[in-house]
Amino acid sequence: MINREQCLAWDKEDQLNQFKQHFALPEGVIYLDGNSLGAQPTAALSLANHVVTQEWGKDLINSWNTADWWGLPTRLGDKVAQLIGADSGETVITDSTTLNLFKVLSAAIKIQAEQYPERKVIVAEKDAFPTDLYIIEGLINQISQGYRLVLIESNEDLYSLLDSNEVVAVVLSHVNYRTGYFYDMSAINAKIHEKNALVIWDLCHSVGAVPMELKQTDSDFAIGCTYKYLNGGPGSPALLWVNPKHQEGFWQPLSGWWGHQQPFAMAQHYQPSQGIRRYLCGTQPIVSMRLIECGLDIFLSTDMQLIREKSLKLTDLFMQLVEQECSEFGFTLITPKQHKHRGSHVSFRHEQGYAIIQALIARGVIGDYREPEVLRFGITPLYLGYEDIWNAVQHLKNVMTHAEWKNKQYQIRGSVT
């Protein structure tokens, strides 16, 4: 039996315990939703004030040069590269994950069409985050060249489709947003490339949560959020990574001036920049982009392997405690128990999932809900400890024991649920 004293002892031994002080968390809150919106780094407030009052307020337009606003997409991209197994000059921070998927999928299709024009199948997971599917559908309709989307439910489905030699590109979530299933990037890449298809990795629920090696595993493209585990702030611009072998084989479908070879020449026709900058589009949201660096600098002062080790210990603990303390309440674990297939969130299915999450939030334990019937708890090792997990499960036990979820106010759905 695990008890609170054991959790406290583990906290004392924790090498990452010191990093909690770098995040501004409300007193009395156990934040288990960092896989949806990361906590605010303490440095963000002073930096935001400096950007608004000095860089914008006093230096005005000069800050494009003096504060290197122009260089932000690649400078931040080079920092993110250190977390995703990439080299300098391969990553940009720009736009949203949604727009970046449109760009890299367009690139993949164009590259493949030159060598395999007969291939028309784009593969994605049935359980992918919906925006990925919407973008694929939208691009297919836009280009009207006979491409079709085929959804898979398992690795076996993927391998079967690859054997057909019809697949042009595969879009996969490195960690599934609902279940937390974690793909073996190296093995999947090898299978896809064996059949001459290209792969696009959605890193939204893995960057900052699990170590990865995009370049070493010969991935083709990757996109992902900076506002989840990387703590970049609400709606902060996303990352876009391209294997150098593909960088020059792409004409930007969103050919804005930031991706131009000579943006200040004011040329009448588009000429793509050399390298990763060609994946940029229009003017960047500078205030939001500046704040991303606060979270990145915290990550770069630690070690992703240590983060991963603690993540697995905390998710193990969460699973074990729910089984130990709440076994009679009908929760069904849908997150893999195997470490090699688990990301950094834990999900349970329960028919009253939405109301239970609302009751927990009222107690100061913030998780989130995803259809259908899924309670999702994000485990962020830099600002969560073992006692936090113990206390969170005790709150869950009390919500169920006293049927707090039956309160009518917890049945009411807001615009964002």
UniProtKB/TrEMBL annotation:
It catalyses: L-kynurenine + H2O = anthranilate + L-alanine + H(+); 3-hydroxy-L-kynurenine + H2O = 3-hydroxyanthranilate + L-alanine + H(+). SUPFAM superfamilies: PLP-dependent transferases (SSF53383). Pyridoxal 5'-phosphate binds at residues 97-98, 129-132, 202, 205, 227, 257, 283. GO terms for cellular component: cytoplasm. Pathway: Amino-acid degradation; L-kynurenine degradation; L-alanine and anthranilate from L-kynurenine: step 1/1; Cofactor biosynthesis; NAD(+) biosynthesis; quinolinate from L-kynurenine: step 2/3. The keyword Hydrolase applies. Keywords: Hydrolase, Pyridine nucleotide biosynthesis, Pyridoxal phosphate. Homodimer. This is Kynureninase. It comes from Acinetobacter rudis CIP 110305. The lineage of its organism: Bacteria, Pseudomonadati, Pseudomonadota, Gammaproteobacteria, Moraxellales. The gene is kynU.
